[in-house]
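Hi V.,

You were right to ask for the full record rather than a summary. Here it is.
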Amino acid sequence: MRRTRPRNDPDAGWVRITWDEALDWTAERMRAIADREGPEAVAFTVTTPAGTAISDGFPWINRLIRAFGSPNMVWARSCARGTATTPPRSPSAPTSAPRTSSAPAAWSCGANNPSSTYLAQATAVTEAATRGTALIVVDPRRAGPAARADQWLRVRPGTDGALALGLASVMIAEGWYDRDFRPRLDQRPAAGAR
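Predicted structure:
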């Protein structure tokens, strides 16, 4: 489906197009950006081959990125995107897979139902919840972990940022942050990050 009206129009004007039309449309726009700004102006987000069904196609995706000429590849796991995108934006806060074994609470936001997309993490969270870890899920749907969450925050799609800013405001007002924290400037963004 292709949108034919501006994003602020309540009616997107969706029209059916073929796969060839979709691929041509995408390629034309990518090439226009590369011609105008250089291929490094395009970043490719690739899901992890280890946790998804993309493993068979990954060599071809990698070949596309290299042939296009962009050095910008961002790894994104469906349920742990922050582990791939946080370090380049905040070198002082390297992340890893969540450690739910000793956490008093587990927060899940934008996780795309780990029960379907990241079974190992879903299993770890379920085991932690069984041991008493409080499960807080932010999701428009009450599916997967949200169905058994101790606290389900039902947000409208696209309002996650407003929720995050509201929580940050409360944390600042209440002093629930590390006032003495200083970023470590000796850490560099991951290779390929801009």
